[in-house]
Amino acid sequence: MAILGLIFGSRGKASDSKMRSKRLKYVLFCNEIGALPLLPTKPANILRFALWLPTRGINSGWKGCMAYVTEVCNWNKNLGFEDPRVPISHYLTQFRHNFRRLVTTHHPAVKLPIRPGLLEAMMLDADLSKATDVRDMACYLLLFFLGLRIGHCAVSSPSQAQHALRFEDLHFHPSFACCEKVLVCVRSTKTRFRAAGLPFWTALARQPHLPFCPVALLQAHYMLAWRGDPSDFLFTGNKTDRTGRITGRAPLVRSTFNTTLRRRLTMAVNRLGIDLDISMYSGISFRKGCLSTLGALNVPAHRLADHADHADVASSRIYTVDTLDERATNTTLIASKFQARAHRL
Fold first, then answer.
1. Domain annotation covers residue 67
2. Most buried in the list 40, 102, 137, 318, measured by CB within 10 Å?
3. Each residue of 30-39: pLDDT tens digit?
């Protein structure tokens, strides 16, 4: 009863059903393996709990398991105990990397990569006389060519707005009018945090041979959206109040971005006459499409990791494509290191 009181609160009700579910999961874990005391939680039990979760129905990988771990840590803090992650912060970082590489998870809703043909079809259907279409196409090409994470262009909540690109994050080289290359500063990523002072720089080159040049479209969007404030968000939508009245501009919302993307994809596949499950595409599809395209072009994993700002080359290897011809060529390279002999055996 004491444990139920801790979970449900003094009035016997849970203020949040998700919070209650996560706490009950932890109680089941403690009961099953004898992880006592329940509270305060021992740091080692945090790691054990994370490994236990995938065996008990939590199939959303590291992110899903950490949601449960975070709730347990918050539970400790709410009761006046120390966050159990603090004493093991260094080991938790190593645990995270190994967890992602070694723990098998099932992702029923994995999104598909967007292919260049689909992107071209959406470009052909766009009306570039409309500012919204210019914005969307510039955003799509920026995501695709640079392999950026969707959070840099569209956010899930206002708290994530700090990660969204701003006008000041772009540098047109050698000048805006005669731009050949756009330098893009990504100030916060999953692998290089803002507090570390190590922003991730990437670059987009002009592609004059393409009917839709990513640099030219980015310039067109810049001229239409620029309002004189470098700190403004690069890709924005209307900000509304509870009555639906427009009150200003805000970063693109992830749900709106995905809805618009799927509408454009529906038009594209209808024109191409192909059958695709549009629900399998979202903002992450551009990043996957970028890395899949580079992998199919035999770009090595270490270059993919640098382009995508992966923390580990192992994350990039899933996109690489090794052919039998390439492996045969590797054996020829090895053979070149043997000393030539006058007589063959």
1. yes
2. 137
3. 999 988 888 9
Longest dimension (CA), the chain: 91
Instruction: List Cβ neighbours of 276 (8 Å cut-off, separation of 6 or more).
Output: 265, 269
What are the tens digits of pLDDT across the range 272-305?
Answer: 888 889 999 999 999 999 999 998 888 888 898 8
Query: Are residue 57 and residue 206 in the same domain, yes or no?
Result: no
pTM: 0.70
What does the alpha-carbon distance between residue 32 and residue 44 come to, in Å, rounded to a whole number?
16
Query: What's the rounded Cα separation, in Å, for the pair 69 and 74?
Result: 9
Give the type of residue at 67.
Answer: A
Angle, helices 131-146 vs 284-296, to 10°: value is 50
pLDDT tens-digit map of 49-105? 999 999 888 887 888 899 999 999 999 999 999 999 999 988 888 898 888 778 876
Q: Report the alpha-carbon distance of residue 140 to residue 128 in Å, rounded.
A: 14
| Structural domain contains residue 324 | no
b/e sequence 179-216, b meaning 16+ C-beta within 10 Å: beebebebbbbeebeeeeeeebebebebeeeeebbbbb
| Number of folded domains that form the chain | 2
Structural domain boundaries, residue 256: 116-297
Q: Which residues of the chain have pLDDT under 50?
A: 1, 10-15, 193-195, 345
Per the listing, tokens 């596949």 go with 269
Residue 283 belongs to a domain: yes
Residues 83 and 125 in one domain: no
Peptide bond just before 208 cis, omega within 30 deg: no
CA–CA distance, 157 with 80 (Å, rounded to integer): 29
Please, are residues 142 and 205 in contact by the beta-carbon 8 Å criterion?
no
Query: Per the structure block, which two tokens stand in for 67?
Result: 């949601």
Rounded-to-integer distance, Cα 280 and Cα 18, Å: 26
Neighbours of 59 (CB within 10 A): 14
Residue 41 shares a structural domain with residue 142: no
Q: Are residues 133 and 233 in the same domain?
A: yes
